[in-house]
């Protein structure tokens, strides 16, 4: 047995209940993992509210965590008891003290990265790696536009793009986020709700436009993002925080020979080799000093409902992590 946060119905944070649950029997390709830190993501709140109907109920939410391997199945060769690991998975079940999980979903942690940092940043780090190295490979001299530049993925994108030699323009939704975007490496920061960011991007780039837009906002910025592109520029719509992007004519891409993608990080890490390669690139960027991951705010796992309320308040500026205390 172990303890976990269980949902029996969708709704507000109060549907997250602390309960004793039975551990699954470990199979040959799996490990028994003792969680030490669990990431809290907007995805979790969408599952809890019922916006995403992807968790069978009753069920344990959570897709990202870090911890220590306690036991391994007979076919597991890559890990041993005592190894520190992290994972991101669409199979849910992270909001638990312990879980049985397939070894192929795990990545080994560098000695210098704490489990709190890993749990608060792995999904964001893999997403940023996908965007700056695979979806559009940022190179020196590129103009890059990053929406939600003070957000979790946005700050990593800004830092990484600047490290690669790009000129970075960021947008934010409120005045208090402006200094955070500058601290993340932006050369210019625009408040997209209060100014015409398309006109400002044209002004900043001398009318040339940007080679790539990383847009996690969606409906409110999508069409403007397309206007900001230079010839042959690429728009990566990796999130839709403001709502779904409305239907549009694909011929809108034709005048400047632009391209568009809606990338999923889970497709980019769909095999163990792809996953571990992406994680190595992310860890290397962090170890080289290209990425500064902010200190997280931690709460006890049994306080997951409070963590969700904090996340949905949107005034929080630090990542949230659930720490796991054995009991």
UniProtKB/TrEMBL annotation:
The keyword Oxidoreductase applies. SMART domains: PKS_ER. PROSITE patterns: QOR_ZETA_CRYSTAL (PS01162). It comes from the Bacteria. Residues 11-322 form the Enoyl reductase (ER) domain. Pfam families: ADH_N, ADH_zinc_N. InterPro entries: ADH-like_C, ADH-like_N, ER, GroES-like_sf, NAD(P)-bd_dom_sf, QOR-like, Quin_OxRdtase/zeta-crystal_CS. Keywords: NADP, Oxidoreductase. PANTHER family: QUINONE OXIDOREDUCTASE PIG3-RELATED, QUINONE OXIDOREDUCTASE-RELATED. This is Quinone oxidoreductase.
């Amino acid at each position: 047995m172990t303890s976990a946060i269980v949902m029996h119905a969708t709704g507000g944070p109060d549907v997250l209940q602390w309960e004793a649950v039975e551990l699954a029997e470990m199979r040959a390709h799996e490990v028994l993992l003792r969680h030490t830190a669990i990431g809290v993501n907007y995805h979790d709140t969408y599952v809890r509210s019922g916006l995403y109907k992807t968790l069978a109920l009753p069920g344990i939410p959570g897709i990202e965590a870090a911890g220590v391997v306690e036991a391994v199945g007979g076919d597991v060769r890559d890990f041993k008891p005592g190894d520190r690991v992290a994972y991101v998975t669409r199979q849910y079940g992270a909001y638990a003290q312990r879980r049985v999980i397939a070894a192929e979903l795990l990545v080994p942690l560098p000695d210098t990265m704490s489990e709190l940092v890993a749990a608060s940043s792995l999904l964001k780090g893999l997403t940023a790696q996908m965007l700056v190295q695979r979806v559009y490979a940022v190179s020196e001299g590129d103009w890059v536009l990053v929406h939600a530049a003070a957000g979790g993925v946005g700050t990593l994108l800004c830092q990484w793009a600047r490290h690669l030699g790009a000129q970075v323009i960021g947008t934010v939704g409120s005045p208090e986020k402006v200094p955070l975007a500058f601290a993340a490496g932006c050369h210019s920061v625009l408040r997209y709700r209060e100014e015409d960011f398309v006109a400002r991007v044209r002004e900043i780039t001398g009318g040339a436009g940007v080679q790539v837009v990383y847009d996690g906002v969606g409906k409110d910025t999508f069409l403007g993002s397309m206007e900001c592109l230079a010839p042959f520029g690429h728009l990566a719509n990796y999130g839709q925080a403001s709502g779904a992007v409305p239907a549009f004519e694909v011929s809108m891409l034709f005048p400047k020979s632009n391209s568009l993608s809606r990338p999923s990080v889970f497709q980019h890490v769909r095999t163990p080799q792809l996953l571990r390669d992406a994680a190595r690139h992310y860890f290397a960027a962090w170890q080289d000093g290209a990425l500064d991951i902010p200190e997280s705010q931690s709460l006890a796992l049994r306080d997951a409902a409070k963590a969700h309320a904090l996340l949905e308040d949107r005034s929080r500026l630090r990542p949230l992590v659930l720490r796991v205390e054995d009991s």
